[in-house]
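ok new one. same drill as before - structure tokens go in, u give me an amino acid for every spot. 319 of them this time. try not to just spam alanines like last time pls lmao
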């Protein structure tokens, strides 16, 4: 009788083929690319878990705790695995891994800003005008004084875009206009090695906003439970950015909306940073005018059309 193909078999098959150590998420992605997942017994009988990466990681750790473990942990930040039977190949594999990481890191976090700005404008969940905040434009302070006070991107939703003129006038007269401002912290990749620092950066630099978000191009599925736990405690949302189709980017965890804003921090940012000061100045002007035809577009980041965005992605080697 043929042996049933298990998660353990899948892990071993992937790590026998791979030229570099892999994380649990990378093992699963490799398996999907090779269609190894379709060999799993649970896939064939329709009971495949909804959290395959977590199940895969659990299998590795259980095996690591045994006497005759098949695996080695070769790095902690992030955690990557290798087959013990290939231990003599490890130095070469590590070298290849370093080369691949250098190749993959040709673009910077800030190169992703136009993607985020386009998504935030076109997404019905946001419909924002956004502005990049250049940290280097802040007044110099004592060591650590300005740390974690600047968001990467700020955004505003103008509600007068949503209503007919008469409805908007009534809302204004009843003092029921709800302008919302947002804060975004952007990372190329999120895993357990940088999750907490990144999350609390987002917490720290969004206290002045109605909603704060952490945005990532890539993330390990293993961190999702922790992201949900942190959201429950601190309210920061999470967005997965999709470079292949920006409109397929997703709000995976919704931010908790705040009505009472930290005006002390907002005033600090207005005083410290030229970009943020200009953002608030122009926001006030646009609110005073309250006219969709007169929004100060030039004061916000440019929203690339699809053609310009595709060229930008290729030029920056993001795709």
């Amino acid at each position: 009788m043929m042996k049933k193909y298990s998660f353990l078999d899948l892990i071993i098959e992937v790590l026998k083929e791979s030229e570099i150590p892999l994380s649990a998420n990378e093992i699963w992605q490799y398996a999907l690319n090779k269609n190894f997942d379709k060999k799993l017994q649970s896939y064939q009988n329709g009971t495949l878990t909804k959290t395959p990466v977590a199940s895969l990681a659990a299998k590795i750790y259980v095996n690591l705790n045994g006497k005759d473990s098949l695996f080695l942990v070769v790095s902690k930040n992030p955690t990557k695995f290798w087959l013990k039977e290939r231990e003599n190949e490890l130095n070469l594999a590590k070298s290849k891994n370093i080369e691949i990481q250098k190749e993959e890191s040709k673009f910077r976090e800030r190169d992703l800003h136009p993607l985020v700005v386009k998504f935030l404008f076109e997404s019905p969940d946001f419909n924002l005008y956004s502005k990049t905040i250049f940290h280097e434009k802040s007044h110099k302070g004592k060591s650590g004084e300005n740390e974690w006070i600047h968001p990467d991107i700020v955004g505003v939703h103008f509600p007068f875009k949503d209503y007919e003129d008469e409805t908007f006038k009534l809302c204004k007269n009843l003092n029921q206009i709800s302008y919302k401002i947002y804060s975004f912290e952007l990372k190329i990749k999120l895993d357990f090695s940088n999750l907490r620092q990144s999350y609390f950066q987002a917490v720290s630099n969004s206290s002045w906003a109605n909603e704060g978000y952490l945005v990532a191009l890539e993330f390990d599925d293993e961190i999702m439970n922790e992201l949900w736990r942190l959201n429950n405690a601190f309210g920061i949302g999470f967005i997965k950015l999709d470079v292949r189709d920006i409109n397929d980017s997703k709000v995976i965890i919704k931010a908790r909306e705040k009505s009472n804003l930290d005006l002390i921090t907002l005033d600090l940012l207005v005083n410290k940073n030229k970009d943020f000061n200009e953002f608030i100045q122009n926001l006030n002007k646009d609110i005073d005018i309250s006219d969709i035809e007169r929004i100060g577009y030039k004061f916000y980041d440019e929203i690339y059309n699809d053609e310009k965005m595709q060229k930008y992605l290729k030029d920056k080697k993001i795709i």
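DSSP finds twelve helices and eight strands in the chain. and btw The first helix runs from residue 7 to 17.
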